[in-house]
Amino acid sequence: MSKIISVKNLRKTFKDQVQVLKDISFDVEKGEVLGIIGPSGSGKSTILRCISQLEEVSGGTIEICGQTLVKDGIYTDKKQRHEITLKSGLVFQNFNLFPHYSVLRNVTEPQIQVLKRKKDEAKKTAMELLERMGLADKANNYPCELSGGQQQRVSIARALALKPEVLLFDEPTSALDPELTGEILAVIKELAQEKMSMVVVTHEMAFARDISSQIIFMDGGVIVEQGKPEDVINNPQAERTKAFLSRFNK
């Protein structure tokens, strides 16, 4: 198997000198799903933001699909940074759709702007993905006319339209009502069955256990425990992991 993501000694300190990531290291193999769990403020989302270049690292190395984005805190050149960015797609917890664009345009426009696809090709790809998400009939609607679950499915379609090598999910169900959570988890499970490489930050413990190839439990900017989901979630070794998981029904 080949590594799709390799993170070594990743560190992130914000301007107020708060160190949110302290020496984080992990690998994700092609076709694997890495689940990241832990309390709020533990640094989970910051890892995704560093991989997708929404945050600059303070130190450490990130490689994506064998290409070095940043080595020992020093970034590669601008052109290569852009190329590497396209290899990952980030699905936000709050959807981040353009409110003044139709559903169809939300999925076509990034293809035209980022991949320089022709409009007809972008539209064809968008409609295929909306069909897959069960939203073909909503193509001409606007985000405000959709439920939260439908909006999140549009954002997943938008990410997939750019043909990333790995998908990053940042708490994909946290903004949803409980009854809408299941439809998003079903979409992600389907992607996992298709061997889509993914990193999923989630507070859904049963889902994390079912979908993940490996689990990381974080707290205070460090990896406290890491391993197979049945070990970390069903049989945690660290006291901090045990305390965190005791609040969830297994």
Task: Lay out the secondary structure.
Blueprint: E1 3-13, E2 19-29, E3 33-37, H1 44-51, E4 59-64, E5 67-71, E6 74-75, H2 78-85, E7 88-91, H3 103-114, H4 119-132, H5 148-161, E8 166-170, H6 178-193, E9 197-201, H7 205-211, E10 214-219, E11 222-227, H8 229-232, H9 239-245
Parallel strand pairs: 3-9, 3-10, 7-8, 8-9
Antiparallel strand pairs: 1-2, 1-4, 4-5, 5-6, 10-11
Question: Characteristics of this structure?
Answer:
250 residues, alpha/beta, five-stranded antiparallel β-sheet, 36% helix, globular
Oligomerization category of the chains in this entry: single chain
Computed over alpha carbons, the radius of gyration is 18 Å
Q: Provide a count of the helices.
A: 9
Shape: globular
Mean pLDDT across all residues, rounded? 93
List how many beta strands DSSP finds.
11
Helix-strand makeup class? alpha/beta
Q: Which parts are unreliable, with pLDDT below 50 for 5 consecutive residues or more?
A: none
